[in-house]
Amino acid sequence: xxxxxxxxxxxTCIESCDASCCYNTEMLLxxxxxxxxxxxxxxxxxxxxxxNQDGMYQLKNIDGHCVFLDHTTKKCSIQEFKPxxxxxxxxxxxxxxxxxxxxxxxxxxxxxxxxxxVKYCPHTKKIIxxxxxxx
Length: 135
Ligand code: SF4
Ligand code: SF4
Hints:
Elements: H1 6-9, H2 12-17, H3 31-41, H4 45-48, E1 49-51, E2 57-59, E3 61-62, E4 65-66, E5 69-70, E6 75-76, H5 84-88, E7 91-94, E8 99-102, H6 114-131
The structure holds iron/sulfur cluster (SF4) (2 copies).
């Protein structure tokens, strides 16, 4: 599994933005995300995800936030095995540009160094490859 980059492992993430990226999330889930989360939580895949209009599995929101977000503490309840895309966010792969970019929606985006972007880009590309492997 991808190790988490420094931004997401620190307290600054939650303190600075109240987990903005976990509200109305559109995070896509790879086949291995689905299996891992289902196995660890005991939930059925349909309990925490749905198939979107592009035929991709996506995290469900409840009351405007990710089903796995503790709305009170702003913490992810599946931190240790959360989706690969959540581990590398705010580094994302822009399909139009064909390259890894830092999502400016994240208020801490400026803290991602060029070195971190380069380091995590291969992980981000692998996630995209896995996403297109759906049967
Ligand atoms: S939007 Fe950025 S700073 Fe906020 S929780 Fe997500 S990754 Fe962390
Ligand atoms: S799985 Fe965790 S980190 Fe990912 S969107 Fe949901 S609450 Fe946020």
